Structures are given as structure tokens and as C-alpha cells.
Amino acid sequence: MSSLLASAARGSALYRKLLAGRDPAHWRLGDLPIARKAELMSRFDDWVTDPTLRLDALRRFASDRSCIADPFLDRYVVWESSGSSGQPAVFAQDAKAMAVYDALGFWRGPALRRTANPWSVGERVAFVGATGGHFASWVSMERLRRLNPALKGRLQSISFLQRADDLVAELNALAPAVIATYPSVAVLLAQERLAGRLDAVPREVWTGGEDLSAAAREHVQEALNCRVINSCGASEFLPLAFECLCGNLHLNSDWAILEAVDDRGREVPAGEAGATTLLTNLANHVQPLIRYDLADRVTLHAAVCACGSHHPVIDVQGRNDDTLQLGRGAPTVQILPLALSTVLEDAAGLFDFQLEQQGPCRLLLRTGLLGKGADSSLRRARAALSDFLVQQGAHGVHIHCKSGQAGRRGRSGKVQRVVAL
After folding, report:
1. 10 Å Cβ neighbour count for 299?
2. DSSP string, 336-378
3. What is the DSSP secondary structure assignment for residue 24, as one 8-state letter?
């Protein structure tokens, strides 16, 4: 930690001022203020430790889908957050940070759980997610394909923005041994398997990015007759925690510090979920994340896991949006929550929203925004959402919009962005 703080004090104008007059030998993490995304992004050029990094240039780079996984300024890997807690942030990682992420993923990730073929040699791995944007998972997948030509034919990305039958057709043609995706997508695939449409059955499903309930895990494992291995990551620190053989998530605490705190920023006891969680990323010295508010609720456990790992066990209450079932007849059309969020963010630029189902073919789209800008954003959002739903086969869906109305919060403490009937 002292290395990160010293680096921040040297290179970041923001932290140079914040840490001025403090003795590095006596720096304590708890003495530093909580850092929040909106504040840091508003002072981005003062926040970073490399003066050649400028937010405007990074935003332009991240808006160009043709340069996904290209190095920014020939040395930085860049991705955006999804915007699930507001406006998206942009993150730049240097070679050192990426080396840490790669090592953690390689040595502690789900591949190491595999006994017959631990590194998936010769097998196909399919990532099912939001392809095309500068999201961390998509950028990381494309980067790996470039770094190792042997992986190019084995690592395939499939968009969940397409119709379910087209998604299933791609998976049937690919027949991957591993599917890496989100829990809501895994549940959809389980239902497609039970309906007799999904023929490709993987040996394992790797999940992350959303809450994975015990019921969802059991449903996917039984329907697909395979193991489900969960993980936890964030745009701010991609390989945050991996699941052990006992089914517990272990924090990579040698490179990431998490503090579960109450609504006044005070640390909560072990075994108790905080109101929010603070992250300190020890790997990224270019864009210092020190006591950064993740806006997820995390429980840190003191007891040592039976698997023998000394890395702490954590429980995470993060994104818990619903899959919508639209239509009056049978079968209904299932619409994934992450697909809906991607459409509203990318096509309409709307990040402050909640989409609530109020009937089989009726949706309410609300935003906390006010004024002409809100009305314009909602018009674009309704048009983009209507087009997307028609493409998915959900016809006759009426979308009503309201501005100046904040969405209700889920158990994670975040606004639940997609709420089913």
C-alpha cells in the first residue's frame, strides 16, 4: 500500500495535495477520505499520474469500436464501466497492472479448477456478453486473442443482444466446452436446454458480473448437467475474487483491499454487510483507486475457509436485475436485463434509469433527470428500446416514460435497473 500512496503523491496532482505534509511512514488507509466515481471523473486530469492521459482523448478512443483492445498511447489498456451506478467511468491500465490481472486470472481463476484439462487446451471457450463496446470483459477477451494466436480460434465472443434463438444457434454451432457469461444469461440457456433448443452442453459455466443465487446455480447445473463456477470482478479491478472448491468467493487480498463500511463510512464488523464497499487497487498506479466507493454491498468473513486458502471469504450483493418475460401469448419473449441496459446506454446515452414491467406488454421507463434534456433522452431511449424489442420478437410493447422520478433500490443498495412484473 505504501508504494501505491507514494506513487500517487508523486504523480497525481489530486493526491499530491491530499497527502501533502503527511509522513509516508505513518500513512494509514483509514485516514484518507472516501473517493467517489463522479468526483474523480470530474477531476480526471488531476487524478491520473501520467500527464499525457486526458479524459477527452480517452472518451474519443472509447467511443471508437474499431480500436477495441488497441493500446492507447501505445501502452495503456482502456475500458469503460457499464454505468450501472450512473455515468460510466474510463479506466486505463499499464503493463504492470495487466500483468497482475493476467497472473491472478491464470493461477486463481476457474481454469485451475479443471482436473482433466486445466488450461482448456484445444477446447473452445465462448464468452456470451455485450460485444462491440469498450467493456472490461470484451476488451480483455479480444486482448487475449491478440496476445496468443493459439487462443484466437478457441476464444469466441457471442453477443447477448441478439434474439435468443440466434444466440442458441451460435452456441450449437460452436459447441464450446466452457461458457463464460452472466448468471441471468446462464439461466436463459438452462431454460433453452430444457425446452430442447440448446444442444450444445458445456462442461462448465463460468459466471460473474451479477448476483448468483443458490437456486439459479442449482437450476443451471441440473439443466446443463455441468459445473457452475462463480467469480467476482469490477471494471475497477477485474479479477477481484474467485470461487474455491468449497463454493466460496476468495478475495485477491494481496492486490485488492476491500473495506465494508456503514452509511457514515465506518468499518463494519466481520460477517456483517456494509452499506457500501471501498476498494483500494494496489496494482494500478496510473489511475489510483484508493478507498474508492464501489457501491456494492460486501460481507468480509473472518473465518478461514475449509479449502485451506488464507485469502478472505467474501459475499457480494451486487447487480440483481430481472429478466423480463414479454408477450400475452405463449411462448413469451425473454429479454435479458444486461441487454436492455446496454441498449439504453449505448443507443440513447441514458444511464440514470429504471425500467419496470407493469404488464405483459407494458413497461415504465423512469429517470431521475429533469428538464428538456431528460425529455430528449427519454425520447431517444424509447425509440431505441422499441426497435430492440421488435428485433427480439416482442411486438406490441407499450413504453411509458417519466422524468424526475428516481428508481427504487434493490438489496444491493443500488437502484434496480430492470424490474420484472
Report:
1. 17
2. -HHHHHHHHHHHH---S-EEEEEETTEEEEE-S--SHHHHHHH
3. G
Three-state DSSP state, 314: strand
C-alpha cell at 44: 480526471
303 vs 267, 270, 388, CA distance in Å? 18, 9, 47
Tell which phi-psi region holds residue 333, choosing left (phi > 0), alpha (psi between -120 and 50) or beta: beta
Reported as a single tens digit per residue, the pLDDT across 6-39 is 999 999 999 999 988 887 778 888 889 999 999 9
Instruction: State the cell numbers at 286.
Output: 496510473
| Distance in angstroms (rounded) separating the CA atoms of residues 82 and 414 | 14
User: Percent of the chain at pLDDT above 90?
Assistant: 67
Quick one: pLDDT band at residue 117, thresholds 50, 70, 90? low
DSSP assignment letter at 89: P
- Is residue 263 classed exposed, middle or buried when 0-12, 13-18 and 19+ CB atoms within 10 A define those classes? exposed
CB atoms within 10 A of CB 406: 12
